[in-house]
Amino acid sequence: RSCFVLGASGETGRALLRELLARKAFARITLIGRRRLSLGEAEAAVGQEVVDFERLGEHSAAFQGHDVGFCCLGTTRAKAGADGFVRVDRDYVAQAAELARAGGCKHFVLQSSRGADAQSRFLYLRVKGEVENLVQAVGFDHCTILRPAVLLCRRQESRPMEWIAQQFLGAVAWVFPTRYSVPVQTVARAMVACVLQPGEGKVRVLENRAIHELGKA
What we know:
Largest sheet: 7 strands, parallel
Distance between the termini: 22 Å
Mean pLDDT: 89
Number of strands: 9
Strand content: 15-25%
Number of domains: 1
CATH architecture: 3-Layer(aba) Sandwich
Order of helices and strands: EHEEEHEHEEHEHEH
Helix content: 40-55%
Structural class: alpha/beta
CATH superfamily: NAD(P)-binding Rossmann-like Domain
Low-confidence stretches: none
């Protein structure tokens, strides 16, 4: 089987790529992004397609011939502004899902967020809820949506307030391991596991506790 990964430069995307390479479950792995990534020893084992997300429709060939699509694409309001956040987290993802389905993708795996709700008054949660609905409407044979709580990881970029929150939640996780946070490696393992062990039904939504359980199985 073959798969593609959107958002491989982010924390979850990098952890996902490591998991995919370690599991050797796919004969072909393609990273689709706005720039090529330096992968070191993994360079020969991974294909890369550079696309312009503002003209994504012109890059339909990048999505052709993949059985599974993993999407970890996202930005922040602080980094991209409100309009930029909506464009990346909703519009880019929805269009990529449509191109993937047209290219033969059977199973789409989307990293969303705990609390995603298209009716939420909070922009972040509303956009996550909207993109969940759009991806489901594409009509994949299987669509898995993961809703992790706060991700525990060591970010490459500096986010001081998030770092403070992670230190606190990392300590809380000793008492409530599945309630408020989840290690990014666990999310990555769950994303791969849900493809290797697909559940029944077309749409499967995994909340934080289920991500922990699947990521440890």
